[in-house]
Predict the 3D structure of the following.
Amino acid sequence: MHTYKINLKIALVTFVPVLLVYLPFLLHLKHFYFLNLSDSGMQQIYKNWDGPNFVLNAITGYDPIQIAKHTFAPKPYEYYANHFPLYSWWISLLGPVIGYFQSALVVNICSNLIVNVVFYKWVSKYSQHPLWLTFVFTVFPPRYWIVRSVISPEMLLIALVLSTLWKWERGLYVRAALLSFLAVLTKFQAIILAPVFLLTLLVQQLPPITTITCEWRKKFHQKFALSAIVAVIAPIAGYLLIAFFYQYKFGDFYAYFNGQKGVGMGAALPFSMFNSAEKWVGTGWLEHTALYFVGMFTLIGKLWTEIKNQNPKVKSKSSGLEGAPIHPVYLSFVIGYTAMLTLIPQVDIMRLAMPLAPIFIMAFHNFFESKTFHIGLLLSLPALYMYALNFIMTNQAGISDWGLFK
């Protein structure tokens, strides 16, 4: 009964914020407060980028001939190879029955629930208020509230990445390998799990930083098998599957990288997202992006300090994690993922950085659980909500003929 009540609360925390975003569109409101919403209903949700691209991939099965018949579609390599297929494959299962856009929302909403359940169970090791933190995780950072409400693979990616790291921490390397394989099929960013796992393996071979890591090292050597190496290889295998799939569909083994170059999103010099001349930047108003990096590097410092202070011989002055000790795999992931983000010439770093958010909330959970943050977040909810609606009405594909998606 206790588990049933907890799951019900998690479901409410998950679905109510999303339903609140949908409500003005379900009611076909033309205006909400000072926003002009049009009266086209849920189509305003459906056509948020990059949702239509994943839907079109699901409808056409990545067939370039079929894609070319849709006047909405850019050239296949310039866009569609950039959208990895696992999310579209899930969409295609229910698409013919309930409609492809509806199926895409169902998949994302189910992913919302899965990631919140995983987050709740995972963060319960560190916090005595996991349900509140799950609510925080649902609406904060503010971009989360939006991505949870539109057609997007991010929630599926975060569920897989967080589950992967948790399985690795528990020594379940085969499961970590499978989940990381699926994560790469969702978005290319998950490829960073390969060097992250390799770095963690090397750390576990070094002299222990703390008595805690010494215990992990002993357990690792006791359990060591090819499964840990398989977990390192699995993300690379996931990308190779995608490459062979693109070779079969597009006749181009390197379709993803060619697609990235085609739309000006190839890897660049570190921090090139602060170059307004970049195609996907185009603005000098980037203070928020700089602050995101402050947060990422602060998170690295926090995790390093906490792992170091887990040695009982070292007096912890800043520790806020009274629960389970932090495994080095989380530090490796934050370092690797942050390093990868510095190479992406894209203004929308927040969306790309979303897999770091659950670790950030865990690491600073004492602050997020404080009365000060309770009051601040609750008073800010109207601002976050209006931000979500305004963003949804702004970040839209120019779809004039919905018949293209049938």
In short: The longest helix spans residues 2-26. Strands lie at 31-32, 35-36. Residues 2-397 form one domain. The longest strand covers residues 31-32.
